[in-house]
Amino acid sequence: MQILHKANTRGYANHQWLKSFHTFSFANYYNPERVHFGALRVLNDDEVAAGMGFGKHPHENMEIISIPLEGDLEHQDSMGNTTVIKNGDIQVMSAGTGIFHSEYNKNKDRLTKFLQIWVFPNQQNVTPRYDQITLHKADRKNCLQQILSPNVADEGVWIHQDAWFHLADLDAGVKLNYTLKNPANGVYVFVLAGDVLINKQSLNQRDGLGLWEINDFPIEALSNQVELLLMEVPIY
């Protein structure tokens, strides 16, 4: 089974300093048919103005993943972390029993763009934690690069959930096949750039496609510089 979310059907909020597209219901955007995809609760495509950002605010019992696409984002939290994440990095927080954090565009002269993703955890009230790594972009050229898993010792960051994330950067004509780590999961594919055919469904930039009750599916790049984010999560 599958569900298609075209880019122009997403929720949108313009706060001047922040422009945000919401794949799933968030803040003032509510669509009862698009509250979540299994354990994937939030997929926000954010653009933060120069020198602006999110003031200190709380989270609890959620796995929060940030993937910068352009520019730099300065992070501070109640665990004592002060870091900067940039394109090529991935950041994860297990909010658990509760944390406060802030996020600001560190640059005074250009935008910062990033994905903010929330995943429901499989454990409640864990000890809050923070992690950040720098990815090697060459490791996703015409292949799938694992960037997140449930396993501490595995590639990428880890979260408290039976989930795997991958990035891919494909040239036109490249064909891949994604096999689910757990056949009981579903996969939500988000197209960051380019045109692609996934399980016989044509997708364009910022389109999303959710697939479930499937063991694997084919991917074919229809244009150059296809960039994909695949998020495998528990579906039920």
Question: Could you explain how this protein is built, in words?
Answer:
- With 236 residues, this protein is mainly beta.
- The chain has 2 domains: 10-134, Jelly Rolls; 137-234, Jelly Rolls, CATH 2.60.120.10.
- The protein contains no helices and 22 strands.
- The chain is globular.
- 36% of the residues are buried.
Keywords:
seven-stranded mixed beta sheet, Jelly Rolls, 236 residues, globular, 2 domains
Quick structural gist:
The chain has strands at about 1-5, 10-15, 20, 40-50, 55-60, 65-70, 70-75, 80-85, 90-95, 100-105, 110-120, 130-135, 145-150, 155-160, 165-170, 175-180, 185-195, 195-200, 200-205, 210, 215-220, 225-235. By secondary structure, the protein is mainly beta.
Describe the protein's topology:
Layout: E1 2-5, E2 11-14, E3 18-22, E4 40-48, E5 53-59, E6 63-70, E7 72-77, E8 82-86, E9 89-94, E10 99-105, E11 112-119, E12 129-134, E13 144-149, E14 157-158, E15 164-170, E16 175-179, E17 185-193, E18 196-198, E19 201-203, E20 208-212, E21 216-221, E22 226-234
Parallel strand pairs: 13-14
Antiparallel strand pairs: 1-20, 2-3, 3-4, 4-11, 5-10, 6-9, 6-11, 7-8, 7-10, 9-12, 13-15, 15-22, 16-21, 17-20, 17-22, 18-19, 18-21
